[in-house]
Amino acid sequence: MDELMTAAVLVGHGEPDVLRVRHDVPVPRPGSGEVLVRVSAAAVNNTDIWTRKGAYGLPGRPDARAGWRGPIAFPRIQGGDIAGTVAAAGPGAPGDLVGRRVLVDPALYRDEGAQAPPVGLLGSEADGGFAQYVAVRADRAHDMTGSPLSDEELACLPVAYGTAMGMLERVGLRDGETVLVTGASGGVGLALVQLAAARGAAVVAVTGRARAAEVAAAGAAHVVARDEDDLAARVRSLCPAGLPVVADVAGGPLLERLLPLLADDGRWVIAGAVAGPVVPFDLRRLYLHNRRLIGSSMHTREHFAELVRIARAGLVRPRIAGRHPLTGIDRAQRQFAEGRYTGKIVVRP
């Protein structure tokens, strides 16, 4: 008889009642080149909420219910952020990983290239870490022996910090540049603030007034309230020569309002649409000023390798805003959706 485990199983698109905690899920068996990870901590992301709701849409059908890259095969175990210990190795997987503390890269890449983009994600296109165990490719389980980060802190890194790393790499942020970060108190936004500041950039962060001090403590040089009476005027006063770089995780009306503030040859990288996925803006403000609008979906292998290096050295420390047991996954997702916090929400099996 298969050994059983507890897991949060998504049975369809919808409200929290479609995410069900079950105690009779078979423990996965690692296949060829895979390892079995005993999950010690997982974290909640916007991808979990949007996947549950089916909010990603389809090409030409923005309101269609779909997962991150298209239709989801149900039932599905959610959770893309995973830290834990390797419990077993499948055929062809390195046995010396067994017993090692690891951080899991959740991306399913298009091909084996160092710059291959993700075409799937654990918790969406394959089972993830809202469970006691998960089977992953051995090369996705990165040894964290010696990292000063706790398992909870490690679990905050893959999706949020991986996405932020991908954005900063694709936009080519350089030491000494100014970057405006939207949604700066969320998981990806706070990661952008920390990683950009660590690169020597001057960060202008847009967030709610109540979280300004926490965002400033993360490394922002200036914090602007998103409900400022004239947000554009405030940003213009801080950057009169224009913004060289914008790292946007919000989308929505801010794009139309702030795009004219981008400097000539400026770069705008976007990796989210929580404030609205379909937006109008004046194309002339893009091409007449040689501005670049860059889409960024998570990270590449090369980006994640750099994140692993940073994690091993403890160069960033994620802020944990809430902790929940796996059996309280509904409360964890509810706290995440409310957004009244700074940092990440962690789940422990």
Describe the structure.
The protein is an alpha/beta fold and 349 residues long. The chain has helices at residues 46-53, 151-155, 157-171, 187-198, 212-217, 231-238, 253-258, 284-287, 301-313, 329-338; strands spanning 4-10, 19-26, 34-44, 76-77, 81-89, 101-104, 107-109, 118-121, 133-137, 141-143, 178-181, 202-207, 222-225, 243-248, 262-270, 292-295, 320-325, 344-348. Strands 3, 5, 6, 9, 10, 17 and 18 form a 7-stranded mixed sheet that branches. It has a 6-stranded parallel sheet with strand order 13-12-11-14-15-16, with helices on both faces. It has a 3-stranded antiparallel sheet with strand order 2-1-4, with no helix packed on it. Strand 1 (4-10) and strand 2 (19-26) form a beta hairpin. The longest helix is centred in the middle third of the chain and has 15 residues, at 157-171. It starts with a strand and ends with a strand. The mean pLDDT is 93.
